[in-house]
Amino acid sequence: xxxxxxxxxxxxxxxxxxxxxxxxxxxxxxxxxxxxxxxxxxxxxxxxxxxxxxxxxxxxxxxxxxxxxxxxxxxxxxxxxxxxxxxxxxxxxxxxxxxxxxxxxxxxxxxxxxxxxxxxxxxxxxxxxxxxxxxxxxxxxxxxxxxxxxxxxxxxxxxxxxxxxxxxxxxxxxxxxxxxxxxxxxxxxxxxxxxxxxxxxxxxxxxxxxxxxxxxxxxxxxxxxxxxxxxxxxxxxxxxxxx
Length: 243
What we know:
ATPase-coupled transmembrane transporter activity; ATP binding; ATP hydrolysis activity; alpha/beta; AAA+_ATPase; Rossmann fold; globular; Cobalt transport protein ATP-binding subunit; six-stranded mixed beta sheet
């Protein structure tokens, strides 16, 4: 039996200044699941995500990705398995052309031609922008840049996609187009977002974290239909939006 894409057990972490950011977080995401990670600013969402690819080291507890523990001897493979798509594509796109950007990750992990070119083509096809391969990322629209940033991660064939506020700063059409791409990928996904309607559209399950602990875990529709839960944890649906 295959291990889950992500297992977090008893994860605790304090920053050097003594601030305790996580207090024994448990989280399990099965292969192919799409899960939204919700919570107010300062809840511990980003701190948790930075443990998944080894940027932070757990003070206590364990994190496993596809059965492999996030630990120093395995960090290169862990960083291939955990594909993080940042909120700002500028943090991800820095090469002269789109194809160069998409090739950068897998080349870094030792992929060579002709496999490298196939990875680039497959990733750009998956996000619906094969025609952009020779363009400069600097000259693309926000929606195109977000999709290219996603392709740079897909080219590494990750075990789990981690998306940081994927809908931010997108116009309605680009937002819808990105959702269609993400739903078509069929990959395990952890989406960190304040956009509750987007969480409902993309993720059947949601996990709410606040003050460093998981306070709710269940079907997204049920959690968003609980006004007391949302109010307690400073989450708010857009005016007029009904679940």
